[in-house]
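Translate sequence into structure tokens.
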Amino acid sequence: MSVVAVLSSSLRKGQNLRIIVIVFIFFFLGSISQYQGPFEFSIDEDGQVQSVPAEAGEHDIYYTHHIASYKPGDIRPWTRGDTQALRTLEGQKVAEFLAASPLLNTPFYSETSEDHKEQQGLADNAFLHLTKRLRIYKELWRSLQRYYDQLEDEDQQDHFYIHPPPEIAPAIELFQKMERTLFPWILKNHGTSFDLYRQTTKALRTTDNPRKVRGSRNQGIVMCVGDKHSIYARTTVKVLREVLGSRLPIEIYYVGEQDLSKENREWFEKHEDIITVDITTKLDQDLLQISGPTIKPFALLVSRFQEVILMDSDAYFLQDPAILFEDGGYKEVGTVFFYDRTRLSKVAGVNKRSWLYSFLPSVSNHPSKTRWYRSRGDQDQDSGVVVLDKKEHFIGLLAICKMNDVLERNQPTYRATWGEKES
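Result follows.
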């Protein structure tokens, strides 16, 4: 008994010593920290403590619901001087570069071939140029938005490219060329991306089959469903309407009549506030060649909702999903994402960190915490449920769609990630 007592006493002393050491280290680090104010603490999925200054400014990196938000303002706005510069010989060369399509490698190559590294570098370089174009396009879009809004107020938006004011004519011309290069599949049914933006940020419009839309915030659910998963989607719809009493309108997207049968379409549409949409009638399928999960970002883009919950057909909720729109993180940044399950990495031969830093001008502190970044898996972020305010993130959504375009997804995007989840 005395031996047991001695051992117990020793263990208690050892535990007390460890606690004292940990407390000492904590206060020592706190004493040398440059920031002396209070902190808010959270614990990420790996059990790591994340601390944020309580007085963090709006431009600081911080965590909200384990999601990093970064607003560095590192991209210079488009100015009148930039527009005037397009009239010069050098400016015309820049415009020609921005309007050109970056060349990508062929989709197939051997990772053991001697020229693999050279091919990989070429593709990454092409993606770098693509992201540069997207950043410039974003600022150009913002600079021309007021002009488009003026035309829209006068119901003259169809004249956006016709006889623009001389002071912005060069910018309009460059914008048109960049849209034809970056997003040609939009132009099947829209004269410009502004048309698509206004379509989803204004109040819901009357359709051929008018339905009463509840609420005034232009919110709804988007699901991408084929015949293979229609049985799950039917269950989801029943749960939403009959069990949870959700009244959010729902759009069911599919790729051509062969993807979702007439019988299934009629079953969905017999329910109140549910319509089915063939995405090939909205975007140019000959250019996109989308199918399966790849349809998701494009369905988000063309949806008539401004605030959208993208939901898989087998995503079953225990309460009305409309509660997601009231989430504190969503109200702050306009998005909600969820972690996916952990799976061993299937993407080989790619340095993910180098690829990420090759095209991002600045990176928040969140990527370094992800399983994808640390090569512990390929599916860090789930796409089964995504909440997005398109008014806040329309250009970002366009960029996501570009990453899932036919060339880009077969090259940089799906080479460094497993499917559409991370993009």
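Note: Confidence is low (pLDDT under 50) at residues 26-72, 104-122, 204-216.
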